[in-house]
Write a structure and sequence with these properties.
Number of helices: 2
Helix content: 10-25%
Strand content: 15-25%
Largest sheet: 4 strands, antiparallel
CATH architecture: 2-Layer Sandwich
Strand order of the largest sheet: 5-1-6-7
Shape: globular
Radius of gyration: 12 Å
Bound molecules: iron/sulfur cluster
Number of domains: 1
CATH topology: Alpha-Beta Plaits
CATH class: Alpha Beta
Order of helices and strands: EHEEEEHEE
Distance between the termini: 19 Å
Length: 91
């Protein structure tokens, strides 16, 4: 995809997250559920709902398509993606 936007930052809106867990199934190296059944982002050393810089992800090999698919799989659109200029890519 030539015009694929680069994902630079990921944020989970914990107020929107209902713990449906489809993001975890789609990208289990990037997302997991915490004790409150809210999605957190797996970062190097820590896990939180972000904002998470792409370079801080535990999984440095994960592709943009996988992260986007995870965000698109969220029934409440709780996962927000931003490009390097800070522009919102999704939703
Ligand atoms: S898919 Fe959405 S609602 Fe479900 S755990 Fe992930 S962020 Fe939360």
């Amino acid at each position: 995809m030539a015009d694929e936007k680069k994902i630079a930052k990921i944020v989970v809106d914990r107020n929107l997250c209902i713990g449906a867990s489809t993001c975890v199934i789609t990208a289990n190296t990037v997302f997991e559920l915490d004790a409150e059944n809210k999605a957190v982002i797996k970062l190097q050393g820590v896990k939180n709902s972000g904002p998470a810089e792409r370079g801080s992800l535990e999984d440095q090999q994960v592709g943009d398509a996988t992260i986007l698919a995870a965000a698109q799989s969220c029934p409440t659109r709780a996962i927000f993606l931003y490009d390097e200029a800070g522009k919102q890519i999704y939703p």
